[in-house]
Specification:
Radius of gyration: 37 Å
Oligomer: single chain
Largest sheet: 6 strands, mixed
Structural class: alpha/beta
Mean pLDDT: 79
Number of strands: 19
Low-confidence stretches: 31-37, 140-154, 160-195, 197-248
Distance between the termini: 134 Å
Shape: elongated
Length: 645
């Protein structure tokens, strides 16, 4: 019995020891797990702003390449939370352009932030912001010590817009091309006659220098393109933007430079990738210098090669910052350099109300061409100018003497522009000098008083119709005359500031049907023409010309072209020579249109010299409509052939 008891005690003791040892071992394993927490430092993109992260103090890992000027920084030492975290770290000197870990601490907002240039980063000034931050290169032990048992480490949290899911907000880091890959040029291939096959002779150490007002791009960053603010696109915004509208200062644009501007950029294969990047940097510098905004200049881009394509319209981007980001994303099309086709494309498709054309702002098209176009530009440019588009030509590395034999259209730039006084045409000797054209170009496109092509043959005249209402015309034929007047008037742009229409009817006497200031819209003008009643009587054409000069053209605006269009069916009962000479002397361009029994010799006297361009004859009233395109073409041809200075 005693032996049994002893055996049972031994078993109990053995079980107790086993449990004790097992517990100690389990506790050690638990302790090991607690003592070995894994702290993962989150990696962020260069474009992530401090305001997008909720934590007041956090550690992040920045990638390489955050020195590029597209990552905006506001302030010095103490930065507005709208700044790029990583770019601010590079600016402050705690991080090199190769990336690394940084510690970020949120602090109170400042009443002002001063911009400065430091460590290859240009920071901007800002009047005020609600929240600031400072950066440090030392990650404190607070982020590396084991957490208290039973708790977990607090992750870096991004502020998210309601309505987006975590899956939607996931940021995907795209592969970045190596700098060397972007600077290689493709093997030249056989091209048609007139096509440029020259390659840019740039040393590998050469860098493009921006305008003085814009930060320089680091040489190592010229070929690195960031995929964009993906976090922002996914719904992440600074927390101050969630509670209140964005306080970021957004310019409304320079009101002294209200123009609608289209850049036609050369995307032909002859450029190579490096020159195409220089061209894009030039556009970005122009966008920055122009101060884009709804109250100032608006800018769109068309790229041309074999054919043309709109990269973005006038209304797509309404501030310089967004515009520069869009320019950065443009990829080269390749092909030939068909600038003439591009100008036609812009004339037909670009400057429309649907695309953001504002009507009251001058239309400007700036054509950049490498060397020379591979098609003709003169006719396309003429049509563009007649449509009110001011064309500027920037020729980079034009043809040297041995190459001139390949130029399709000699002197193409002067044939394309509105005036040949070098105001509209710029020549650049080297692509490396293109940045020097930023300020001269901006000054020209903003000088709206000198944008002569904004005034066209269709929107710059006071047109007075002088209508024969004599008995020989008859009621039916007079209605045909009025239809001719309506058809011709319909072709013009009519308003108080554009073309204005007036009308006089005459027999022995004269009557002012309506003056230049009576109607200011096309529908009103057309209705007024319909209401003109047939008078009937004799034919005193000389007195009618004198009456029109006194009662109609005396009230013409000084800056308007004065056009008189006289329609008659017979010989005048009075002298027409003195009144016709008076009209010519006063600068009134007179068109004489004779029908049926009209005397050709009188038409030639009434018409402005040369008579062959200003006097027309039709054999009967029913053929009067055929004169509309002839008269219109001569009006526009004469307008565009004015002396160029």
């Amino acid at each position: 019995m005693g032996i049994v008891v002893l055996t049972m005690k031994a078993s109990v003791i053995e079980m107790f020891l086993v449990l004790l040892v097992t517990g100690i071992h389990s506790n050690k394993e638990m302790t090991k797990k607690i003592k070995r927490p894994k702290f993962n430092v989150p990696q962020v993109n260069c474009d992530v702003k401090a305001g997008k992260i909720v934590n007041t103090e956090f550690v992040v890992k920045c990638p390489a390449g955050c020195q590029a000027p597209r990552y905006h920084v506001y302030g010095s030492d103490v930065y507005a939370s709208y700044s790029s975290v990583c770019a601010a770290a590079v600016h402050s000197g705690v991080l090199s352009n190769s990336g690394g870990k940084i510690l970020v601490r949120k602090v109170a907002g400042q009443s002002g932030y001063k911009g400065s240039y430091s460590n290859g980063v240009q920071s901007l000034s800002l009047p005020r912001w609600r929240e600031s931050f400072i950066v440090s290169g030392e990650t404190t032990k607070a982020y590396q010590k084991p957490p208290v048992p039973g708790t977990t480490a607090q992750p870096v949290t991004l502020m998210q817009v309601p309505g987006t899911t975590p899956a939607e907000a996931t940021h995907t880091t795209l592969p970045r091309p190596s700098p060397s890959a972007g600077s290689t040029t493709s093997t030249p291939r056989p091209q048609p006659a007139g096509y440029r096959s020259r390659e840019l002779d740039l040393r590998s150490t050469a860098t493009y220098t921006s305008s003085p007002n814009s930060p320089r791009m680091d040489p190592g960053e010229m070929d690195v393109w960031n995929p964009g603010s993906v976090l922002s696109d996914a719904g992440f915004v600074p927390k101050e933007e969630v509670s209140t509208p964005s306080l970021e200062p957004v310019s409304q644009g320079d009101p002294n430079c209200k123009v609608d501007l289209s850049f036609l950029i050369d995307g032909s294969s002859s450029l190579g990738k490096r020159r195409f990047r220089i061209q894009k940097q030039f556009l970005a510098d122009v966008a920055q210098a122009l101060d884009i905004g709804p109250a100032g200049p608006l800018m769109g881009v068309v790229q041309y090669g074999d054919n043309s394509a709109t990269q973005f319209h006038l209304k797509t981007h309404t501030n310089s910052r967004d515009l520069k980001e869009a320019i950065e994303k443009i990829t080269q099309r390749g092909g030939l350099s068909n600038a003439g086709r591009a100008i036609s494309f812009v004339t037909k498709n670009f400057f429309s109300k649907a695309n953001g054309n504002r009507g009251g702002a001058p239309n400007v098209a700036v054509v950049l061409v490498d060397g020379w176009p591979t098609d003709r530009v003169e006719e396309a440019s003429r049509v563009a100018r007649e449509s009110g588009i001011n064309i500027f030509f920037i020729t980079i590395e034009g043809a040297v003497e041995p190459e001139k034999q390949y130029v399709v259209e000699p002197n193409f730039a002067n044939k394309a522009v509105c005036r040949t006084n070098s105001f509209y045409s710029l020549s650049v000797q080297s692509w490396l000098s293109l940045h020097k054209m930023v300020q001269p170009l901006v000054k020209r496109v903003c000088d709206t008083d000198r944008l002569a092509c904004s005034k066209t043959c269709l929107n710059s005249a006071d047109i007075g119709f002088v209508l024969d209402g004599s008995s020989s015309v008859g009621t039916g034929n007079f209605r045909t005359v009025l239809q001719f007047v309506a058809n011709l008037s319909r072709e013009f742009e009519i308003s108080d500031t554009d073309t204005r229409i007036g009308a006089v009817q005459y027999t022995y006497e004269q009557r002012l049907e309506f003056g230049f200031d009576a109607y200011s819209t096309k529908p009103d003008i057309l209705n007024a023409i319909k209401r003109v009643g047939y008078w009937s009587g004799g034919t005193s054409t000389g007195a009618a010309i004198h009456f029109a000069l006194e009662q109609l053209f005396k009230k013409s605006k000084p800056n308007k072209r004065k056009l008189m269009i006289l329609i008659t069916d017979g010989r005048s009962y009075d002298d027409i020579r003195v009144p016709a000479m008076a009209a010519h002397h006063k600068g009134v361009i007179t068109y004489a249109i004779g029908v049926a029994w009209a005397a050709q010799d009188e038409l030639d006297v009434i018409a402005t010299h040369p008579a062959k361009d200003h006097a027309f004859f039709v054999d009967e009233f029913d053929n009067l409509y055929k004169a509309v395109p002839k008269v219109l073409q001569n009006i526009c041809t004469e307008f565009n052939s004015q002396p160029r200075n």
